[in-house]
């Protein structure tokens, strides 16, 4: 650590978001990059459900402040001795690692293998909305569900995206359309249905009603892929009914209830989890795939294929605005992303 300090927002106690100490303004030591770490000057951050989950009330207390924030866009200030992918001055975007301090600080350390070059057509706020949801959507579709990038192979195939209007769904719709799939999204409100349609969903069904009759009503017998971005256990039976024989289901939402895997047996269905923090958390041999996919997402953004999903921008980055962002997210009615820009 250097003797210099920096501004950050974090917590010592895990409290409800309306408590003034749930997120507080801090002055902490400015870190120094070693190994493959980049020191990034943070220009914008975005808030995700993982932030509210980590911050949610529990009895433990931290002796040193816990800093959240897993969506960053900024500029490389300094590189560690083992870095080869970036240099000072590069504009970057990334989601970071859940087992390290988050990005709600003026400067932030991140392993360069999970960092991408910021899309050139976006400003920092627009770019900060993308990394976590893009990595999750990309890994879910292409690494976990094994969907090919070959449009011809996907011509008559369908994907059902449960919770299509959320952060990950917003990117997944666009990527699935790009590789030629027919996209059926679920939404329960007019506003979220309109958002999903606008991003390219071919059909919308309601996730509070049985899936199969709604699919039949739009002429769909079954779907080859399901990407579940909303309460896994609540949709389990519906997903088992709607999936095609030998189809694949991927979920990103952990469950407290036991799931009956036998429902998938007769159809030989694959069920797989996606967590975008797996690669950085376990330092997997293929960790650099996140660097590559973020660069590919940037290319698709700059090519007009993918658009960012910012819904609201708050300035500056400080505790009061981060509390406001958490509050918005906790309503569960957020369409698009909340981004915060600039430390004062």
From TrEMBL:
SUPFAM superfamilies: GroES-like, NAD(P)-binding Rossmann-fold domains
Gene Ontology molecular function terms on file: oxidoreductase activity; RNA binding; zinc ion binding
Localization: Cytoplasm
Gene Ontology annotations for the cellular component aspect, listed alphabetically: cytoplasm
All copies of domain Enoyl reductase (ER), residue ranges: 21-340
Domain of life, per lineage: Bacteria
InterPro entries tied to this protein: ADH-like_N, ADH_Zn_typ-1, ER, GroES-like_sf, NAD(P)-bd_dom_sf, Quin_OxRdtase/zeta-crystal_CS, Zinc-ADH_QOR/CCCR
Keywords on record: Cytoplasm, Metal-binding, NADP, Oxidoreductase, RNA-binding, Zinc
Residues passing through the membrane, by range: none
One Pfam family this sequence matches: ADH_zinc_N_2
Cited NCBIfam families: adh_fam_1 (TIGR02817)
Family: Belongs to the zinc-containing alcohol dehydrogenase family. Quinone oxidoreductase subfamily.
Quaternary structure note: Homotetramer.
UniProt protein name: Zinc-type alcohol dehydrogenase-like protein
Source organism of the structure: Cohnella lupini
């Amino acid at each position: 650590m250097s003797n210099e300090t920096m501004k950050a927002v974090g917590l010592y106690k895990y409290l409800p978001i309306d408590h003034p100490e749930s997120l507080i303004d801090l002055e902490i030591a400015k870190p120094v990059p070693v190994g493959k770490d980049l020191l990034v000057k943070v220009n914008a951050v975005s808030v995700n459900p993982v932030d509210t989950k980590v911050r949610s009330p529990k009895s433990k207390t931290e002796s040193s402040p816990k800093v959240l924030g897993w969506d960053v866009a900024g500029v490389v200030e300094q590189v560690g001795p083992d870095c080869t992918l970036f240099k000072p001055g590069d504009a970057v975007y990334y989601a970071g690692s859940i087992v390290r301090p988050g990005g709600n600080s003026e400067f932030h350390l991140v392993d360069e293998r999970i960092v991408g070059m910021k899309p050139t057509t976006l400003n920092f706020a627009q770019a900060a909305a993308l990394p976590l949801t893009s990595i999750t959507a990309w890994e879910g579709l292409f690494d976990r569900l094994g969907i090919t990038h070959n449009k011809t192979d996907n011509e008559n195939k369908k994907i059902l995206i449960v919770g299509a209007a959320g952060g990950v769904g917003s990117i997944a719709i666009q990527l699935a359309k790009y590789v030629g799939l027919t996209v059926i999204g679920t939404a329960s409100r007019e506003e979220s249905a309109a958002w999903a349609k606008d991003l390219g969903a071919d059909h919308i069904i309601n996730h509070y009603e049985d899936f199969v009759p709604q699919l039949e009503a739009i002429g769909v017998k079954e779907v080859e892929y399901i990407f579940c971005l909303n309460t896994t256990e609540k949709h389990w039976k519906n997903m088992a009914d709607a999936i095609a024989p030998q189809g694949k289901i991927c979920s990103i939402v952990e469950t407290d209830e036991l799931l009956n895997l036998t429902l998938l047996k007769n159809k030989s269905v694959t069920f797989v989890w996606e967590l975008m923090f797996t690669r950085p958390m376990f330092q997997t041999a293929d960790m650099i795939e996140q660097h590559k996919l973020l660069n590919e997402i940037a290319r698709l953004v700059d090519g007009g294929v993918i658009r960012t999903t910012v819904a609201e921008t708050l300035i500056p980055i400080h505790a009061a605005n981060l509390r406001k962002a958490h509050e918005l997210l906790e309503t569960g009615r957020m369409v698009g992303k909340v981004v915060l820009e600039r430390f004062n």
